[in-house]
Amino acid sequence: MQQARDFLDETEALAALLETMDPAGWDQPTRFKGWTPNDILVHLHFWNRMVDLSLTDPEAFATIAAGAAEALPKGTLRSLEQAHVSERGAALRTAWLGAARAMALRWAEVDPRQRLPWVGPEMSARSSMTARLMETWAHGQAIYDMLSQSRPENDRIRNVVVLGVNAFGWSHRVNGWEVPDPMPELHLTAPSGALWQFGGPDAANRITGSATEFAQVVTQTRNIADTDLVVEGPIATRWMQTAQCFAGPRQPPPPPGTRRPG
User: Fold this and answer.
1) Where are the domains of the chain?
2) Is the CATH number of domain 158-242 1.10.150?
3) For strand 115-116 and strand 206-210, is the pairing parallel, antiparallel, or unpaired?
4) Is 184:208 a contact under the CB 8 Å cutoff?
5) Which CATH class, in words, describes the domain spanning 2-151?
6) Does the pLDDT value for residue 262 go beyond 60?
7) For the segment 42-63, what is each residue's pLDDT rounded down to a tens digit?
8) Fewest 10 Å CB contacts: which of 23, 130, 194, 241?
């Protein structure tokens, strides 16, 4: 499963960035809800392990998932994550990276179509691994921004782009809206310079520009106003103003200017 390789490559890239960070940086707030790199890595490590347990130990997964389902409406999910992950700082980086490496090796051999339990509806193995790649990439953005670093992008970002495209309907349903048909036409330039096109021909609704910026918008690491994407038409405009490629209740994007690097 190529997504397992892509997940590991994205993890290794973030791990390399963290290795250059001053030790004090682990407790420095980022522009993502004030989370610190410690908070971000606890979150990533916890949910990486949950996905792995869905494959290797469904009973253990079910027990922890029940606790997560109870914690979510109470607003105590972060406390649950922190209770299950004791490491912090460099030790947390080591634990997270080691577990992700072992996980990627296992998942590379999994049938991408295998159905696996999750906190919500079950997912395919490919979807589970794509979600871990997306979370790593999206949460990593806050650390790159905190350190005023530009991330060297790679065409594995296509996984995030496809997830965003596939969540077009979800982005509307989570807001209580009917899903328009057809979805806008997308012309996105990959980091390699390749052109990625999605959607059918739609002269009235079109999105053109960087695939990286599109991925940033659908993961809510950037406001559409802070990108150079060209958005044409009412359906495309509303989508880019409210896009959400992750599960859970509706989340507003960051206000303009709040997630710029530096």
Assistant:
1) 2-151, 158-242
2) no
3) unpaired
4) no
5) mainly alpha
6) no
7) 999 999 999 999 999 999 999 9
8) 23
